[in-house]
Amino acid sequence: MSERDGWPEAPSLEEPPGEEEPAAEVDVEEQVGDEADEDDEADEVEEFDEIEVTEPEAVEASEAASKEHAAGDFVVPEGYGVLEGSPQGGRRAVGIVVSRFNGAVTGKLLAGALAELEVAGVPRDAITIMPVPGAFELPIAAMALAKTRRYACIVALGCVVRGDTPHFDFVAGEAASGLQLAALETGVPVAFGVLTLEQAEQADHRLEKGAEAVRTGLEMADVFAQLRAAAQR
Questions:
Q1: Catalytic residue, candidates 44, 167, 173, 202
Q2: Is 164 part of any domain?
């Protein structure tokens, strides 16, 4: 049948089927070079296999450690005036606002804060403790104490644990911004000793935060006192 009937034309017999083109000549030097490249690749694979692979747990631990806040040592160049406070109490009055919520944790923060105040030389009769229902109430309590002008610094202690709802974000964020606002509006240092945790078990490794907040508050109170004294000269 012809192509017109829908069938293709018969193949040409000028090149009978079954005859293959002659094989190309092999370049011996090129073949040797290819084999050398394969050997090099094999060596690279063996060298790669010898590289020590860090376990995922070690990587996570390293990343977690790098994210932790740590005090850094620095030196102020000579020739500049330096105004730096010291965490010494003396007769300074200190106000403490502490959350009753998560009391198992905040009670330990308070104990650490009071022990640090004793070490700093702050007498008991110069310390006022104001318990409040939760961390959300810490800012207004700190503001009230600061506005009396009776305290050199305020120490805020609390604990917020993340749950299954956005409650954590609102409480922790408002507590932080509110305590900062209390310090900015009154000029009285307010030390942040509020733990923000993913799980309650994390508190055991962060109970030093109460004592740390005391040292921060006393240091800021001291440097502010030096600043006022310098301004009156």
A1: 167
A2: yes
Q: Give the residue numbers spanning the domain of 147.
A: 94-231
Q: What is the pLDDT of residues 15-69, one digit of tens each?
A: 444 444 445 554 545 554 555 555 555 454 444 444 444 454 444 444 444 455 5
Q: Nearest to residue 89, comparing CAs of 153, 183, 144?
A: 153
By C-alpha distance, which of 136, 132, 139 is closest to 99? 132
**Structural domain includes residue 166:** yes
Contact between residue 189 and residue 217 where contact means Cβ atoms under 8 Å apart: yes
205 catalytic residue (yes or no): no
Q: What is the pLDDT of residues 146-195, one digit of tens each?
A: 999 999 999 999 999 987 777 778 888 999 999 999 999 999 999 999 99
Assign residue 150 the CATH number of its domain. 3.40.50.960
Number of domains in the chain: 1
Flag whether 168 is in a domain. Answer: yes
Q: Helix/strand/coil (H, E, C) string of 21-84?
A: CCCCCCCHHHHHHHHHHHHHHHHHHHHHHCCCCCCHHHHHHHHHHHHCCCCCCCCCCCCCCCCC
What residues contact 90, with CB distance under 8 A and at least 6 apart? 121, 122
**Planar angle of CA 131, 134, 139, nearest 5 degrees:** 80
Assess if residue 24 is contained within a domain. Answer: no
Q: Which helix (H) or strand (E) holds 109?
A: helix 103-120
